[in-house]
């Protein structure tokens, strides 16, 4: 049961105005289509972008993959094979239709792999290097919001995020409690996890890329930062449809406020379900890396609403922390 205490407005909660574009093919997908059928040894415009993608997500670690190097060499072919194996595709080492489709999907910004200084594979689930986790004394974690997307009501965001936290709580020894943003600076009540919506370069060394591709990213325990790209078409509705009013409403830093604007309707096809992405990112905040199992919430690509955990997710969290009581 939820109980709410109404405060007078003293200070406004920070909102970020999204710049979501109309649904269209991402520029990187168009680049990949232009590379379809490229042979090893060729130099073609766009290979540098492919190298940057493979490096960003842990598949290419050589130093010769700068953006101005459009040479499709053996290292790129091998990196593509690693990507295809991780994503359960045919390991052709080619820019084929299946690979273009997979790389074109929205996804998490955390790397997938598996290098000596990257993720550690255990079964299908993974951990960060060194398997960092929360201390044994930290099983009651608190969280709060540093900012919200202007087009989302704070109440809906809080509900979606709370549902995601509770899903992990049900299969682990963790409990989660939201701290209202008004109390963020209480020295005795500091949150363990801080969530927020941000645009492009937002000061953590991992800039977002605007609409499409990277949706969110999270740092390993016990950092506690969990960031969403504000420019994505987020939805907080239970079905993926978001019928509502433009503007925002919800808890400000010290109270409730609502702004009214023209009605907006977002289609289920193009929306990104906030609860699904939050469920994935909270897995990272607890110490899980990406899984090779497509049904897992920790699979790196977003393919639609997924609000439950697979057995692989449960096995991963319990391998890291032990079984729930």
Provide the CATH top-level class of the largest domain. Alpha Beta
Total helices: the number is: 7
**What is the number of beta strands?**
16
CATH architecture of the largest domain: 3-Layer(aba) Sandwich
Distance between the termini: 23 Å
Q: Would you give an account of this structure?
A:
InterPro entries: M10A_MMP, MetalloPept_cat_dom_sf, Pept_M10_metallopeptidase, Pept_M10A, Pept_M10A_Zn_BS, Peptidase_Metallo, Peptidoglycan-bd-like, PGBD-like_sf. Pfam families: Peptidase_M10, PG_binding_1. Keywords: Calcium, Hydrolase, Metal-binding, Metalloprotease, Protease, Signal, Zinc, Zymogen. With 325 residues, the chain is α/β, with parallel strands linked by helices. The protein folds into two domains: 78 residues, Orthogonal Bundle (Muramoyl-pentapeptide Carboxypeptidase, domain 1), CATH 1.10.101; 197 residues, Collagenase (Catalytic Domain). It contains seven helices and 16 strands. The strands form six sheets. The protein has a six-stranded mixed β-sheet with strand order 2-9-10-8-5-7, covered by helices on one side. It has a two-stranded parallel ribbon with strand order 1-6. Strand 3 and strand 4 form a beta hairpin. Helix 5 crosses helix 6. The chain is globular and about 60 Å long.
């Amino acid at each position: 049961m939820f109980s709410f205490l109404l405060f007078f407005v003293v200070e406004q909660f920070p909102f970020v105005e999204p710049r979501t574009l109309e649904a269209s093919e991402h520029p990187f997908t168009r680049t990949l289509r232009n590379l379809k059928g490229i042979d090893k040894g060729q130099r073609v415009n766009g290979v540098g972008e492919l190298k940057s993608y493979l490096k960003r997500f842990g598949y290419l670690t050589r130093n010769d993959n700068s953006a101005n190097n459009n040479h499709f060499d053996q290292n790129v072919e091998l990196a593509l094979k690693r990507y295809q194996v991780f994503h359960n595709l045919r390991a052709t080492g080619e820019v084929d239709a299946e690979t273009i489709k997979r790389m074109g999907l929205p996804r998490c910004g955390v790397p997938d792999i598996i290098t000596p200084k990257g993720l550690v594979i255990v079964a299908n689930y993974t951990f960060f290097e060194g398997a960092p986790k929360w201390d044994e004394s930290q099983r009651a974690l608190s969280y709060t919001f540093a900012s919200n997307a202007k087009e989302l009501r704070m109440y809906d965001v809080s509900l979606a995020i709370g549902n995601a936290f509770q899903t992990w709580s049900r299969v682990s020894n963790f409990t989660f409690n939201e701290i209202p943003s008004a109390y963020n600076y209480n020295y005795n009540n500091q949150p363990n996890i801080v969530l927020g919506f941000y645009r492009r370069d937002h000061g953590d060394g991992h800039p977002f890329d605007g609409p499409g591709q990277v949706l969110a990213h999270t740092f390993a325990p016990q950092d506690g930062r969990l960031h969403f790209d504000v420019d994505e078409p987020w939805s907080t509705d239970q079905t993926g449809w978001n019928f509502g009013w433009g503007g925002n409403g919800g808890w400000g830093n010290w109270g409730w406020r609502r702004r009214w604007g023209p009605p907006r309707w977002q289609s289920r096809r193009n929306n990104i379900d906030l609860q699904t992405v939050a469920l994935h990112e909270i897995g990272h905040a607890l110490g899980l890396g990406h899984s090779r199992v497509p049904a897992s919430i920790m699979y790196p690509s977003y393919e639609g609403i997924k609000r439950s955990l697979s057995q692989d997710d449960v096995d991963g969290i319990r391998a890291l922390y032990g079984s729930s009581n």
